[in-house]
Amino acid sequence: MAHTRVVGIDHVQLAMPRGGEERARAFYRDILGLHPGLLVGGLREILEQCRQAGLEATLENVPLEGYRRAFLLDPFGNRLELLEPEGSFGR
User: For residue range 43-58, what is the model confidence (pLDDT) as tens digits?
Assistant: First the structure.
């Protein structure tokens, strides 16, 4: 099995009621200075490992310049965003 790993924290994603994004940005970004998400190497391998473990994981089709990204649910239902910088695809 290929070694996959989290290589850094890019930002943290938080759950909120539908339509609450602007209020969340005002608090978490503007007041606290946070931008949640995990920077990873080996995104495809991580997604495959999650699927084999029975976790829901999907590639995101909405482009984010400079990154390939995916979302997954942890065993407790928390949604996580994984970002792999361009140029490291296929690792």
Answer: 888 888 888 888 888 8
Q: What would the two tokens of residue 19 be?
A: 């339509």
How much is the pLDDT for 89?
Answer: 52
For the entire predicted model, the pTM comes to 0.60
Q: Give CA–CA dist 61/68, Å, rounded.
A: 9
CATH of the domain at 68: 3.10.180.10
Distance, in Å, from the CA atom of 63 to the CA atom of 57, rounded to the nearest integer, reads 17
Give the structural domain span for 61: 5-85
Which of these, 1, 18, 11, 7, lies nearest to 71 by C-alpha position?
11
Which residue in the block uniquely carries the two structure tokens 């290589």?
7
Instruction: Tally the domains of the chain.
Output: 1
Joined together, the tokens standing for residue 43 give 């995104």
Let me know if residue 91 belongs to a domain.
no
Tokens of 18: 């539908």
The whole-number pLDDT of residue 91 equals: 45
